[in-house]
Amino acid sequence: MTEFEQRIGYEFKDPSLLREALTHSSYVNGKNHHSNERLEFLGDSVLSVVVSKYLFENLQDQPEGQLTKLRASIVCEHALFPFAQKIGLGEEILLGKGEENTGGRQRRSILADAFEALIAAIYLDGGLEKARDFILPFIPPLDVLRSGKLLIGDYKTILQEIIQQNPEEKVTYELASETGAAHNKVFTSNVLLNGQIIGTGTGYSKKEAEQAAAKEAISLMGYETN
How far is Cα of residue 226 from the mean position of the Cα atoms in its chain? Predict the structure, then answer.
């Protein structure tokens, strides 16, 4: 059992499925490997089924519209990215040199896609119950889901919606710093409310840094984020 398999709590009978799940399309050129794109397609469906069933069974007092919103917030890219970070997925992905040199291991879309591909690999190797066992620990606790304070997704939009409850308030973003070589920069951004910093975040693009700053601001306001 590899160290990564220990981290995810699943040992593959067919290691080639795990390798495929961890292979980004940039790594495939000229090599005898399949990328994880097809597994990503399947994993998206498996994830949706598992989350839908869990919400349906455990939130019987919630209407269909609320269940749909909760599912969307749990399976979106912004949620899957921190899920992938929790298991150190970025360290395991096979990347081409170009992606490697431009911060691909921390790119939100790459990690989220690989997380879905990993779900599919577990499903194909061990069945739906094993995939379910892997997915469920990432779903927020039921009391959080019921509270209405679970906010996952486009954090800049969410923050704007919160602030708009008070029309006189204004949210802006500023670039605080950028470090690193030209091909692998790290950006730090602040989000300000009426000129006062209410959150700070970092990322491999200005957009990612602003999203991280908005997420921190939302968390400091008392909302649960993932």
Answer: 8
Domain extent for 204: 155-220
Q: How far apart are CA 179 and CA 74, in angstroms?
A: 32
The residue from 20, 40, 44, 113 that is catalytic is 44
Q: Residue 44 catalytic? A: yes
State yes or no: pLDDT of 92 exceeds 80. Answer: yes
Of 145, 167, 182, the one marking the end of a domain is 145
CA distance 60 to 47: 20
Q: For the domain that residue 195 is a member of, what is the CATH number?
A: 3.30.160.20
Per residue in 98-115, pLDDT tens?
888 888 888 888 999 999
State yes or no: is 20 an active-site residue.
no
Q: What is the DSSP string of 92-146?
A: T-B--HHHHHTTGGG-HHHHHHHHHHHHHHHHHHH-HHHHHHHHGGGSPPHHHHH
Q: What pLDDT, in 10s, does the model give residues 132-169? A: 999 999 998 888 788 766 666 678 877 887 787 777 88
Co-location of 63 and 159 in the same domain: no
> Mean of the pLDDT values across residues 93-98?
92
Contact between 149 and 223 under an 8 Å Cβ cutoff? The reply is yes
For residues 127 and 23, membership in a common domain is answered with yes
Alpha helices for 136-203 (secondary structure H): 142-147, 155-163
